[in-house]
Structure prediction request, 647 residues.
Amino acid sequence: MQKHIYNPNPEFSKNAAIPSMEAYWELQNRALEDYEGFWQGFADEKIDWLAPYDTVLDESDAPFYKWFTKGKLNVSNQCIDRHLSDKADKTAILFEGDRGEVEKISYLQLSQRVNKMANLLKNEFGIEKGDRVVLYMPMIPEAAYAMLACTRIGAVHSIVFGGFSSAALKDRIEDAQAKIVITADGAYRKGKPYLLKGVVDEALSRGGECVEAVLVVKRNNEEIEWVEGRDHNYNALITAQSDDCPFEPMDSEDPLFLLYTSGSTGKPKGVQHSTAGYILWAQMTTEWVFDVKEDDIFWCTADVGWITGHTYIVYGPLAAGTTTVMFEGVPTYPDAGRAWKMVQDHKITQFYTAPTAIRVLHKMGKDEPENYDLSSLKVLGTVGEPIDPTAWQWYYEKVGHSKCAIVDTWWQTETGGHIITPLPGATPIKPGCATFPLPGIMTEILSYEGVPKEADEPGLLCITKPWPSMLRNIWGDPERYKKAYFGDVSKEGRPVYFSGDGAVADKEGYITIVGRVDDVINVSGHRMGTAEIEAVVKEDDAVAEVAVVGCPHEIKGESIFIYIVLKEGHINKDIKNHINALLASEIGNIAKADHIIEVPGLPKTRSGKIMRRILRSIAKGEAITQDISTLEDPSIVKEIETTAREA
Ligand code: WT7
Prediction:
């Protein structure tokens, strides 16, 4: 079917950073002809180097690639100090609280607060270059101050999303061997205070001996437990700190942060990002893909606990010197007009969110955007999962008034920044298509043997050349890094980065993301490993066997569907609630299943491998078309189907 094409708004293109497909191809051809020269040009133009680098790309220890080796820089300088000469009074962070209060933090104020926090970490807690700092924070400006304070002194932050449970937090603290945890008493959501600090207490009561101190930001002043000697009050300590803390010159390849994410096997892995390559691409993509201009107000609705929040709430927008919006609340409170009211009130120019949020807002208030003045909007963005045509159309017409490009950005925690996306001033858009790789990024759709797929033939989405903002390692596990990302696909004898996603390109080269081909599911744009969920379910004494699959969901994209086989003699008494409670406590509420069904057995091959494809089909309610004759017991399929239908 020929899809309708939406051309860029010519008025917008006139002043766009990349104003046409010709300009796109000129850049991309430059990268194809002289890859290192291409990146060198941007590194020299964009980064405030404290000492020059000697090599653009060092491939000698592939796949442990190094970029801009021996160069010195500091990310907090890149995001703050270097802007102070001309942007001291410009708003860096525009914070809106859940209850509607607004605080505008200028670049000068940001500098002062980050310097104070850096001094606090250094002087009171002895945090040094290379130390790991875990952040378990709500969406308040102090989260950004803490991130930037870490980068200022060369500490490595690891943010744990506030929705993760104490057990998940403990695992991440221990894996990173963090010296300090920065948290808050709590924050506000939907008009009510909620608590966060208790989760840290619980995590540390279960382990995390490496932690010497907990720094607590007071946000809602709810009553919390206090461990004398371990817990420290940020608000009381910060006032005495000097607002001058010289930044540490960091090596290009020094780790900037860790961010744990789920894979197809085992425990979550600590994705390790670098200093120079990451910040370069965070800034460049903010400038190219969102086309930020001097007076723009940029709002990314993600949480700082995910990579989207790292790159497009904090690092990208601040490195680009723009105003970034940070929102504590949820876009549906007090009503479905909240997000649109914020766009109107703050004259937001770029709005970046997840398809799940768009579907929720659409469902709750189809005509709600009409009640607000959304004329300030120039670029709309989506991320995290494929966007369906209904959501796309509504977003384009009702929110963007058919004049804003929608950038459907495909990327991952591991890629650091955007990889495949339309450019708002250049790319003719086909809805649902992530379109083309950005200039400098070399993607290919391959078979496992590394053979490029023909047009319209789905294959494995690979990135065939290293890029500056790629992950550098999995914290403490280089073997897993090699295996997880470079172990599946080789091209012409060289291992290439495989994303875990399937994709297809049409005859014009437009790339559509098909979704994960591994055992990772995507619930509301959150990545969950089925193996990780299965390991938790197995902790239930009554469970003999378990298989977890993703099931299409109208709002969430995918939901969690669990098949369990009970041990003999056990009865199914309240087991569903029990399993969901276990998932909530071991991982977090985001891991709760929509469906848990008890089946007499699982479909297995004679060698004992579970045929998940069959389970996925049954979860979807699809007829089984696969060949089931290779199963050890083909009759089990009928039985599972019947149970699923009844459930
Ligand atoms: C996975 C990465 C990157 C920030 C948010 C998620 C899926 C991401 C898209 C998109 C279709 C997408 C992929 C990818 N994904 N963006 N525009 N269209 N799918 O980061 O948790 O690392 O998850 O999200 O499956 O592999 P993440």
User: Anything to note?
Assistant: The two ends are 37 Å apart (CA to CA). Residues 524-646 form a domain with the GMP Synthetase; Chain A, domain 3 fold (CATH 3.30.300.30). The CA atoms of residues 394 and 428 lie 18 Å apart.
